[in-house]
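Illustration: Glycerol-3-phosphate dehydrogenase [NAD(P)+].
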Amino acid sequence: MSGIVVAGAGAFGTALAVALSGTREVTLWGRDGPAMARLSGTRSNPRLLAVPLPPALDVTSDPAALERADILLLAVPAQALRGFLADHAEALAEKPLVACGKGIDLETLEGPTAVIAHAIPSARPLVLTGPSFAADIARGLPTALTLACADPEEGTRLQALLSTPVLRLYRTTDLVGAELGGALKNVVAIACGACLGGGFGESARAALLTRGFAEMRRLALVCGAEDGTLMGLSGLGDLVLTAMSEGSRNYRYGLHLGRGESFEPGVTVEGAATALAAARLGQRLGIDLPVTDAVAALVEGHIDVGSAVRALLDRPLKAE
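Result:
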């Protein structure tokens, strides 16, 4: 066995591997052999240039590393998770698999834990989520996250294993609430960015953040989440960070939408696909999600920001 393996060598996966490698045996795994060879040689990820990889951190593209792992952190984009699991199902069987990506699968309209459970029934799915930027984690800045695990005993064990003096994990058994909080806040962050990018001001952003949070809670509760989870790190905490800072890709993407500009090439924006999936899920469940629907229409290019804001303002007056 080789301890902890972080699968996915993007900014967040690399940051987690760096943060955990100080006192534990950690491997950073990526599927691109030449890219991982360069990473191993330079000891620097282009997405985290200011943070060198610790000498003890192993870097590899060898699939055997997945099979040897005691625990896997899946820092894989939500829309790529099903494919990753299908490619490595045998190696991942009967292991704790911690989903670190934030999103809803566009085809199945499922969160990461359901995707894991269907792909590898013998695996034990968990969720690691919460307000965090990769650069902060990699630099060792204090960060608090939520670890969701259905089994309290295993959750307690992994909480201790994955916490460090500056990376503090809080435990919950509410998998659905943790993963939906992390996914849906990206949609609201896009809305907030588009609002500012379109020139509608800080007050309008505050209104969107608040009403968007109400949508997050409404959808999550129908899906079986606990409201307290959405009020914690993986819901409100993550939303505040993501919807208020240009360090958030989803917020920056919204800014570009609002300005009518193209976004940074090659950068994954989880909230764009999540908006489409959440809008479809809301329609399936008969839930009113006006902010989510507006973001989905923006992402698809069906409306502009001005039209989206006018549509929201023209809705019938109601009690809060």
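Reading the tokens back as a structure: The first strand starts at residue 4 and ends at 7.
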